[in-house]
Amino acid sequence: MERFDLVVIGAGPAGLAGAIQAQKLGLSVVVLDDGVRPGGQIYRNLENLTEKMQSVLGKNYRNGEKLLQDASHMALDVRTDTAVWHISADKIVYFIRDDEVAAVSAGAIMLATGALERPFPIPGWTLPGVMTAGAAQIAMKVGSAIPAGRIVLAGCGPLLYLVAGQLAQAGANVQAVLDTTPRMNYWRAIRYAKLDFTSLSQILDGIRMIRAISAQGIRHVRHVKDIKVRGANRAEVVEYSTTGESGTIEAECVLLHQGVVPNIQLYRHLGCEVKWDDSQLCFHPVIDGNWQTSVPDIFAVGDSARIMGAKAAEYSARSAALYIAKKAKGTQDLKTANSIHREFRRLTGMRKFLDILYQPPVQFRVPALKDTVICRCEEITAGEITELARSGCAGPNQAKFFTRCGMGLCQGRNCGLTVTELFANASGKSPNEVGYYNIRSPIRPVKLGALARVETGGLKADIEFS
After folding, report:
1. What is the DSSP string of 29-98?
2. What span, in angstroms and rounded, lies between the C-alpha atoms of 382 and 370?
3. Separation in Å, CA 423 to CA 12, 360, 387, 431
4. Cβ contacts of residue 365 below 8 Å, gap of 6+?
5. CB-hemisphere CA count at 13 Å for 261?
6. Between the chain's N and C termini, which has fewer beta carbons within 10 Å?
7. What does the pLDDT read at residue 459?
8. % of the chain residues with pLDDT over 90
9. Whole-prediction pTM value?
């Protein structure tokens, strides 16, 4: 079995930056990623996209060029099309590549698995034609594809406006943006605003995105309090209401987005402590000042640690790599460490402001209508989970046994936060008290043919094969 000083899981901004830093410091490194090419979601397919689409996606997308070039010039060992499905207690990482199960042994593991779009369970969100704004952006990056027909975007957060502008510039028929950001959020967030150059630049970027959709003639409705998608067999109409108006907009494609949340599946699998964050309204791993989790030699970096943005993610991973190298080699570069720390603080100066401003309102996180589907895989409704909570069900894991909620293909990625908040709302407990799903192997789907060829000796302490 190959052994590396550091195994990095995820080849996005954080994973690549951390791996490059670690290799520069003399560590043996391998990066495992399930994408076709390195770059993660943010820099997906950057090296193969046309100049026209690169222009549509903007300067932040092209920021990944240097990172990818550095990885190539350093001959960084990046293994793509590689799905990690199990990590043992002794830091053996099992993955599937070319339909074969393989494993590597790690001195330390850096989890750079990024973020997931937050669930947006509203009536009609399971209809064909409804997807996330992030999915539409991925389609542009992968195949320069845009949705056909009339498009309505709904939700909150900078990505909503970014994708609306990108789609319009690419020639899509964008009808409207329905912004669900509550008016009160602006007043709550303003106390966290900074006046330094970086923060003002971020604010101006946001203003430019809003002006861009206005320049395209896209309708902009603010402070939306209710949204429903209607249609016989697919999305046809979006119904909305604000304090002062209500209306309908015909649309064949509805793109939903209310921010992103850390992908904590591997942390839960490894037994890392996670906690609820009241600013970002999600769970994230508990880490120390060196980005180490509660499990020794397991490190959380980038948006999988907490939502921070692509550039800040790079510096979090570089900081973690410095500490890992210090432990492994005894080397320490305080000047570089201090420089990285200062840059990270500069890039995250407006994070609290953004977290508070774009907190999605409760009605879009905890459905009030009983028949709203919250688990798309198993078609479990909000009413079913609420009734279980009120009848004394212990929490998400017991609900999983009763209903199969969280047992589908996504393994709870699309319903986990909603289930936790439904339980908290019904029981009067905090999300921390309610908890989250236990995550067991396999983390990703494994073909039976590949699984049959696995040597089970090294796994018997973790998984029972029958």
Report:
1. EEEE-SSSSSSTTTTTTGGGS-HHHHHHH-HHHHTTHHHHHHHHHTT--EE-S-EEEEE-TT-EEEEEET
2. 5
3. 33, 18, 9, 8
4. 118, 119, 121, 258, 281, 417, 418, 421
5. 28
6. C
7. 64
8. 78
9. 0.93
Reduce the DSSP state of residue 170 to 3 states and report it.
Answer: coil
The model's pLDDT over 75-130, given as tens digits with 9 standing for 90+, comes to: 999 999 999 999 999 999 999 998 888 999 999 999 999 999 999 999 999 999 99
Give bridge partners of residue 356 from the DSSP assignment.
Answer: none
Residue 54 has pLDDT above 90, yes or no: no
Tokens at residue 41, please? Answer: 């979601």
Q: Burial code of 99-129, b = ≥16 C-beta within 10 A, e = fewer?
A: eebbbbebbbbbbbbbbbbbbbbbbbbebeb
- The candidate with the shortest Cα–Cα distance to 5, out of 392, 330, 381, 250, is 330
What residue has token string 């789907």? 445
User: What does the CA dihedral 60, 61, 65, 70 come to, rounded to 10 degrees?
Assistant: 80
Phi and psi dihedrals of 141, rounded to 5?
-70, -40
Q: Residue written as tokens 């509550």?
A: 182
The pair of three-digit structure tokens given for residue 214, joined into one six-digit string: 């206005």
Half-sphere exposure for 274 (CA within 13 Å, toward CB): 28
Residues 277 and 292: their CA atoms lie apart, in Å, by 18
Strand (E) or helix (H) holding 238: strand 237-241
Residue-level length of the chain = 466
Residue 227 in contact with residue 238, Cβ under 8 Å?
yes
Q: How far apart are CA 101 and CA 86, in angstroms?
A: 10
| Tokens linked to 271 | 């037994």
The answer on pLDDT for 346 being more than 50 is yes
| pLDDT of amino acid 466 | 36
Residue with tokens 């064909």, as numbered in its chain: 128
**178 with 213: CB under 8 angstroms?**
no
Task: Specify the residue for token string 């609900």.
Answer: 399
Work out the pLDDT band at 426, boundaries 50, 70, 90.
Answer: very high
Read off the pLDDT of residues 362-389 as tens digits, 9 standing for 90 and up.
Answer: 999 999 999 999 999 999 999 999 999 9
The phi, psi pair for 409, rounded to 5°, reads: -60, -35
More confident residue, 333 or 406: 406
Name the token pair of 452.
């049959």
Report CA torsion sign: 163, 168, 173, 176. positive
Cβ(369)–Cβ(123) below 8 Å? yes
Task: In whole angstroms, give the CA distance from residue 162 to residue 213.
Answer: 9
pLDDT for the residue 176 = 96
Max distance between CA atoms of the chain, in angstroms, equals 65
